[in-house]
Amino acid sequence: MSCMNNPLSFQGFLRDDGRKGIRNVVLVVYTVECASHVALEIARGEPDAHVVGFSGCYDNAYAIRLMLALARHPNVGAVLAVGLGCEYTQPAKIAEVVRKSGRPAEWFYIQEHGGTLKSIELGKRIVRSLRDTMRESARLAPMSVNELVVGAECGGSDGTSGLAGNPVVGRFFDLLVGRGGTAVFEETVEMIGLGEVLRSRAATDEARAAVSRAYDKAVRYCRSVRQYSISPGNFAGGLTTIEEKSMGAFVKSGSSPIQGVIRVAEQPGGPGLWLLDSVPDEHFMQFGYTNPNDTEGIMDLISAGAHIVLFITGRGSVIGSPIAPLIKITGNRETFHRLQDDMDFDASRVLTGEVTMTGAAEELFSLITAVAAGKLTRPEILGHREQFITYKHQDPSRLRAC
Amino acid sequence: MKKCFQIHADDNAATLLEDCDGGGVEVIGGSPAGVTLVEPIRLGHKVALCDIKPGAAIIKFGIPIGVATQPIRAGEWIHLHNCRSRVDERSSTLDVETGAPTDVVYE
Description:
The complex is a heterodimer.
Chain A: E1 9-14, E2 20-21, E3 25-30, H1 36-43, E4 49-53, H2 61-71, E5 76-83, H3 91-100, E6 105-109, H4 116-136, E7 139-144, E8 149-154, H5 161-178, E9 182-185, H6 195-200, H7 205-225, H8 232-236, H9 242-250, E10 258-263, E11 272-277, H10 294-303, E12 308-313, E13 326-330, H11 333-338, E14 345-346, H12 349-352, H13 357-372, H14 378-382
Parallel strand pairs in A: 3-4, 3-5, 5-6, 8-9, 8-12, 9-11, 10-11, 12-13, 13-14
Antiparallel strand pairs in A: 1-2, 1-7
Helix pairs in contact in A: 1-4, 2-10, 5-9, 5-13
Chain B: E1 3-5, E2 13-16, E3 23-28, E4 34-37, E5 46-48, E6 57-60, E7 63-68, E8 77-78, E9 83-84
Parallel strand pairs in B: 1-3
Antiparallel strand pairs in B: 1-2, 2-5, 3-4, 5-8, 6-7, 7-9
């Protein structure tokens, strides 16, 4: 189906659970907002040290699942969990689960180690030691594109996103799936108006039922909170309705059949295209909020094991991500030039006829394999590692429903 | 000549590929092959390719993306002032230029 016939391979990091990563990161996890400054200072200036954390003092099953999925992501080689000492979320248990996955992991409470400066000093010592262990014990293994999981999400969309940025990613997803890889897309609240289109893309009856459930919940959610997933910047960029934004966003899924629906922190059940449902389930506190910002959605995709996340923007965005590199794509020529330091890929060239849609998708394929092999993305170079974990409810009994 | 893009043959709206002050614009992929803008329209925004009656669907990607709330002439800008969502009530209250909310009181 494409002119690229040889499987593209590169060096990966083999983990004890059999999965392979494309980066080797020491992850510092904080378990309450009160520990966030110390965690960020521990990682500051430490190569390959990234930070994620949960700000709430009261724990949340969803947030814990998400943190554990991130801490055992294939790109993570070691973990330090840092707590203040009062909060519900237990750093010791995080470290224990991570150790069971074969990764070195440590934890401590700031209150037990004499406050800010002593904790930062201790944390840095631990991170350096974890990094040494991780690097010494790293097992390099050849890895090929059929072992890659790539996520896609859009943000700051405008009228060009549905014309160029998202279609190029959709075409890339078709190429990746055609070569045995795994692709994950999300944002069911940005599929409002497309119920039938979505159902018609399901690979099996089981997948159709799961897709239908996820879509219907997204509709109920938006009606209930009276907020559709469209922002002032989208309108200013020429998008007039959620239906218009939905169709422009959905094209990033490409044309492959949808294998099933996964929920946050769940891994795809095999290769192919998967829909990630990150919308909260109805419960006693009603829904809560679905993706309150772009970073939350990126975290969801990384929790599904995405090695790399594609971020398609029209208006422009300057975010990055911890753990898995973010690749910034725009279909808006002016945005590409105005925010050149932040942008990785100019998809607007398909609109001027400089390159065909398939040509652009193949260029993107090359860029992604280069990033998988170690090339740094613009957000990585600029040091962007925005992260966000929120309170949410997703019923654990409905995990692996499909 | 400046350009706009018609995605699907059924579309009655095309997307501007650059800012345009008015006048003739080429419709890529389109029929008719050109449209005359009667007002300035910015990159990413939509132009009506034909006259559209109130209550009629605005078609883009081959699907209805909203409903005309007033008569729209060929060459006019289609946006919040003359098109509303069939599901999202709030978007009709936003500022037509910036998209900023007008329904929340700050003080």
